[in-house]
Amino acid sequence: MSWFTWREVALAGSTVAALVGAWAEAAVAQEKATPPVFSWDLAVGWIGVGGFQPVPGRVPPLNQNPKYPFVPNGTGRQPTYRIADLTNPNLKPWVKEIMKKDNDEVLRGKIAFSPSSSCMPSGVPAFLGLGGNNNPYWFLQTPKEVVIMRAADSQMRHVYLDVPHSPNPKPSWYGESVGHYEGDTLVIDTIGLNAKTFVDYYRTPHTEKLHVVERWRMANDRQAMEVTFTVDDPDTYYEPWSGMRRYRRVQQQFMEDICAENNQHLFDYGVPIASKPDF
Q1: What pLDDT score does 9 carry?
Q2: Is residue 241 part of a domain?
Q3: Helix ranges (DSSP H) in the chain
Q4: pLDDT score, position 11
Q5: Contact residues for 263 (Cβ-Cβ < 8 A; gap 6+)
Q6: Which residues pair with 54 in a beta bridge?
Q7: Which of 87, 108, 161, 192 has the fewest CB atoms inside 10 Å of its own CB, making it the most exposed?
Q8: Which H or E run includes 66?
Q9: Residue 188 and residue 177: Cα distance in Å, rounded?
Q10: What phi and psi, each to the nearest 5 degrees, are found at residue 18?
Q11: CA-CA distance, 74 to 249, in Å (whole number)?
Q12: Which residues constitute the domain of residue 191?
């Protein structure tokens, strides 16, 4: 081998070593980075903007059926309900069958179920679709736990930091969420969800195999927050899909909101009522 070849090899080795060293320093710096602060106190909340948006290059979330455009409240027009586009190729047959029956009932005049109107826990990832209409999220962060709260319905999620999942978590409304920080991002991994909730706005059912990974980060000079999430349930979907949602910062004090109190039964929402007082 010529002298120049040996010299090229040496230079290449030096370059690789330098890159590896730089990468290691960056990794260490990231590990030591200060975790993001999502809220300073219970007077700073986050209101959702829009619905679940697609993530470029990934399987998208379910969409509205174009034959029945969705009209939200506050537009000056007659509001409508969400009707899923069941031509989506990612849904398993049993899911489409259930959702078609639900869609048909809603189109015939039935009031579409929603966790908020029924005072029921929303589950994950449907919880990510809440936080709108002046009902923000609030975050409480400690070294061992992050609590994500919503005043309406008094719903909250507990995320336990830097711990593994339980071997066999018992299925529950919000499942078991464990998390950790990666630089400026809070990563949440949730399993152990029961099958009593829906996945999204379109009342998509799921099984207890549902697995959701979220990545929360600040944006727009801390005036906004965004979450990117991936949903995997091999018995419901052919492939995992991903979505994204943004939230805007608001100055609003947390106040507890009891959902079932003073319910006048104007609509048959099926609000749960205790058979006897618990005090």
Answers
A1: 37
A2: yes
A3: 3-32, 93-107, 115-118
A4: 43
A5: 271
A6: 243
A7: 108
A8: none
A9: 6
A10: -65, -40
A11: 20
A12: 44-62+121-251
